[in-house]
Amino acid sequence: MNNGNENTVSILSILQQLSLEGMLSKSAEELTFRMLNRTIALCPYDRSVFFEQGFSGLKLKGISGQAAVNKTSELNELWNRLAAGLLEPHRGRLLTKDDFPEGLHEDWNSYVQKNAGTAVLWFPLAGWGKHVGGLWFERWSGRQWKEQEQQLLIPLIMSYGGAWERLHPRRPFVDKVRALTRRKFAMFAILAIVLVLLLVRLPLRVVAPCEVVAEDPFIVSAPLDGVVGEVAVNPGEKVAKGDLLFEYDRRTAFDELKVAREQVLIIKSSLDRVRMQAFADPRAKSEIAILEHRLDQEKARYKLAEYNVSMLEVRAEVPGVVVIADPEKWRGRPVSVGERVLSIVAPDRTKVRIWIPEDDNMTFDLKTPVRVLLNVIPEDSLSGRLEFVGSEVVTGPQRTASVLAEAKWNESDPRVKIGLKGISVLYGEKVSLAYWLFRKPWAAFNKFSGI
């Protein structure tokens, strides 16, 4: 009984020593050497082989008693074929021909007949909860493996797995890449993605802010210099032809008219007096021509003053809806001839004004409709045709450098009103999906790097 206890203590001591040696290994090569050559101290065998899990399956990495592996030898090629075809490599067991596909039965039978009969015990090596390799233990000359020996090797192989984890820090991203490449269709998927990126072509598109404006508005400008007295209309008010829009301050114009009339009367009176004197004094005849010339000048000034008085009231020349920013700001404001005061528009005749960001001013396809999404009706997309794209840079609504463009509606919509805002989508030439996806990141990188 004492001999049995001593034997158990000895086995546990060897098991502990081998586990400790594995954990203290300083490199994967040192750990591989210990697994192949030191495990025999716990359980005798004639040869051991180590396989490591790679991208394409299990590959031969080491043989007991050999410093290097000859990858081109016939025996090593046979090991690689058997390991690659092993069914359920994550499960430890005593191997038989049923553990391989039917196509490898002949190779297996010829292999086990060598060395007067070979018995192979397989143990998978696990790390990070997955299969990372396996150990192949052989006994020759018909010697078989006992169940107790298999159970004895299990904790040692588990400790080897822990040592393998320590020497191979886990790399989650690399592991995911490896898992992807193990799949048979991985390369086909990558190739398909590349082909899609290169062959699929999409039109470039630009999203830009826009506003609904009047089409061909009638501009009402100041007919003469003066001060605006009253504005008779409000923004959005409908007017008919002849309705009063605004009027000037009358005081200055009437004062000028009064002065011009009095000047005409004074010069006319002086001219009549000189003509009477000319009958008695021939020298007075020389003043007649001068006074007639002055009279013509004052009459012209008088007519201009009359015209100015007639233009003090500005009336609508066409019917429509008034567009003016703020009537109150115009009251008492001096204006010059030709200065724009307001406009009259037809509410059912509108167009889209678009501010294209300067960085997106590409060549646009005029045949492709422009999509317009207004803020008040975001559920519907309206369609228009691009009329022109300007060449000068202006300041857009977001205080960004922009290029002005305009589009006309393909179909009228009663919901569209002047002043509505939203976004428009413009389309350019067709490019590859790769260029479509990476155009802006590429441009941003160039700005950042200066390349």
Determine the N-to-C terminus distance: 84 Å
Largest β sheet strand count, sense and barrel closure: 6 strands, antiparallel, barrel
Question: How many DSSP-defined strands?
Answer: 19
Low-confidence stretches: none
Q: Could you tell me the radius of gyration in angstroms? A: 50 Å
Strand order of the largest sheet: 6-15-18-17-16-19
- Helix fraction? 25-40%
The averaged pLDDT comes out at 86
Instruction: Provide the β-strand percentage band.
Output: 25-35%
Topology as a string of helices (H) and strands (E): HHEEHEHEEHHHEEEEEHHEEHEEEEEEEH
User: Given the helix and strand composition, which structural class is it?
Assistant: alpha+beta
Number of helices: 11
* Shape annotation: rod-shaped
Please give a structural write-up:
The chain is an alpha+beta fold and 451 residues long. It contains eleven helices and 19 strands. α1 (2-23) packs parallel to α5 (147-167).
